[in-house]
## 1
Amino acid sequence: MLYDINHKKEKIEGLPLCFQNSIKFSMMKNILKGATLLMLMSVVACKDNTKANEQPSTEEPQHQEETVIEDTRFKVEIESNDQMQFDKKELKVPVGEPVVLTLTHSGKMDKSVMGHNFVLLKQGVELQAFAEKAALAADTEYIPVEEEGNVLAHTKVVGGGESDTIEFVITEAGKYEFLCTFPGHYAIMRGVLIVE
Ligand SMILES: [Cu+2]
């Protein structure tokens, strides 16, 4: 197969330089291989080039006053670990105000073997009886459906390196028990939330 490059050159002059270069490039390659794919590639390259040469838009993004809303919610953190412990036995939060609670798991173990959650019970709920039912509720992350009415707030179950944040409001001052309902954990992983 022979190509008269000069003849073709005449034909392609008058096209934008970008196309000329692409076409020349394609013709050369065509001698060795089929040109279709290469033509396509050249066109794509040409388009990219065009984009790069575009002037940046002079349109100013709509300027808006930024309003920084200060997060005044009360924040509380509780940590858990691979030794089946919470780092706090007592938490204090204000009554009637939004509380943002974060449970973190600083260990490495998977949630299937050392999972933890934070479950806050209504006053008057018998913790041990609740925990024993909860331990069987693996399908609902150890929150038994029939006991949901006894739970004021709860996180999901977290494993090592994970955390979960919840928000709740307690409208009555007093002491509330919390626990981890992962099977076998409640005896150690429990404490009191003081609302005042
Ligand atoms: Cu636990």
## 2
Amino acid sequence: MLKRTVFVGILIVGLAIAIFRIGPFQPDRSPSTPQFLQTQEYQQTREYWIKGEEIFWNYAPSYPIDEMMGMKFNQDQLIFVENTPNQIGRIYRKAVYRSYTPEFKQIIDGPDEVIDPKTGEMRIVRQPGSSDEHLGLLGPTIRAEVGDRLVIHFKNETRFPVSLHSNGLLYSKANEGIPYQDGTSQKDKADDAIAPNDSYTYTYEVPESSSPTTIDATSTVWPYYSGTNSVQDTNSGLIGAIIVYSRGSLNAKTNLPKGIDKEFINIYQVIDENSSLFLDENIQEFTTASIDTDDEDFIESNLMHGINGLLYSNLKGLDMKQNDEVRWYVIGLGTEVDIHTPHWHGNTLLDEGHRVDTTEVFPATVKVLDMFADDPGIWMYHCHVSDHIDAGMSAVYKVDPA
Ligand SMILES: [Cu+2]
């Protein structure tokens, strides 16, 4: 009798768990019916206010000096960085993501801009020495812990319809940010292309299926970008990163995972300005000759081999102290030339348990690597693809002696 009572009791509790989803959140892994979290189950809602804005971006502020070698740019390098009557050079009009305080009152973070392309006068948003300085062209870093909800208030202040799409998170069709024939009705399509001066609020969830696993580090990274015309939009500059931390691992004060002293995000991308939304504007603004957009030399001059949109060691802020634990998030973007092999001089890293000093990324793939920076110095950090070395896909990172 007692056995039967216990059995019936277990059965009732089991049914209750199954029906009412009592207990810790378990993601539904069925691809056709994603189980969105109930409001009361969110660990935290994290809000971001992000604008898409047009800026002038300088790929090589050190011009006419190659910052890696401390010498004047040679003829081969000038193809990418010199403004001439028939090539655009190093400054381009682009669209970028920038973050603001609530209601878009005050800018928080985003790429710096050239206010006057003639004089080179700059508006500096990312202060030297800040943790965001190294982000270069990238939009603000979006951070969440597993179990959180992300609410992103997006305002498009560019002249083209654009959107915000995140890889890897859980989103409904009304929050996907990419137009295609997906069988949805008009009400689920408002997110696909936000018209100039319009706004949209994207909501993402961060369930276990977006999170690092036990063989990952305590955090993982996903690219976010505009997907309205994803090829043109990503070449225009609407790119950034979302970091997802395992539950309880994000220190809210430092914005770093516990046990990690520095975090760096690097997108390796041959940014193809020939495919930018602003190609015509850039030709008008920065060239004086009559331009044939099929001319091979002109096309070559617009292939900007960037780490976070900066060439020839113009990427700054990769600074740390000796014995720091440093987490590197490396993301590839682009097309078939975007085979990148990021290589660190001076220190080695752990890549999912493997010891490496070189890794690999392809378009839209990511790597999370941990470095114990025990070897002080100014160290070269570059893509190891020969053609990309020549074209400026290089930087240095600094390890100050303890
Ligand atoms: Cu490369």
